[in-house]
Amino acid sequence: GGMAPPRPDPNWRGDPMLPQNRAVEEQVRQRQEQRQDQRRDWRQDRRDWRADRQDDRRDWRSERADGRRDWREDRRDDRQDWRNTDRRWDDQRGRQRDWSDNRRWDGRGAEGRNWNGRNWNDGRRFDDRTRWSTQRRWDNRWRQDRRYDWNSYRRSYGDRYRIGRYYAPRGWDYGYRRFSTGIFLNSLLFSNSYWINDPYQYRLPPSYGTLRWVRYYDDALLVDIRDGYVVDVIHDFFW
I need a surface site. Which of 103, 119, 122, 161 has the fewest CB within 10 A? Predict the structure, then answer.
């Protein structure tokens, strides 16, 4: 049970005065300096790389900004050209076609008359705020109401949706066009002879105010009859 011998110091490299130990110390010092030089070079390279990348980013952002400006200028020019030609002539019928608001042609020209020939709102179209100022805004969530599940009802009573051939109104010579919500119809297409007077017969929600369900070929359109604005659409509703 004597005392344990002291552990050797792991950092001790022998007597520094011996030549072989001085050589080892010199080799260690040279390696440390070499590592420091490599670290300095690596850090300098990283700084140079970051500077180059920042320059590239600035160049790329500048080019993108220039491209955006050019694209916006081109778009403004295109819009101006389109506005200058928003009244185009129908060569076959010799009358102007209305391409205003960048919407599909509604065939009404500048008259803006409603189904019975009276002039609503001095021939101007209603904006979204004034359209609903005097009546409840149409809610498309009726499609989640089981009372108006017209699709299931049609599967059971399909013969009720076969109501005969659609005869386009006189003066409408453009055939079927697939309309969507937000367009303005030609007043010929929503005259009262095309109204669906009993919407619930087809499991449609009731219309109200200035809104009317209208048959258009095999589609059912909900139209504001003041200016022909299409509020709701069901394509391929009739068979």
Answer: 122
Residues 157 and 212 reside in one and the same domain: yes
The span from the CA of 204 to the CA of 90, in Å, is: 37
- Reduced to 3 states (helix: H, G, I; strand: E, B; else coil), residue 10 is coil
User: Could you tell me where the DSSP H helices lie in 85-149?
Assistant: 128-131
User: Do 230 and 222 form a contact (C-beta atoms < 8 A)?
Assistant: yes
pLDDT (tens digit per residue) in 16-54: 556 566 777 777 788 888 887 777 777 777 777 777 777
Same domain, 48 and 139: no
Given phi > 0 = left and psi -120 to 50 = alpha, else beta, which region is 171? left
Cα 231 from Cα 72, distance rounded (Å) = 32
Give yes or no for a contact between 223 and 211, defined as CB atoms under 8 angstroms apart.
yes
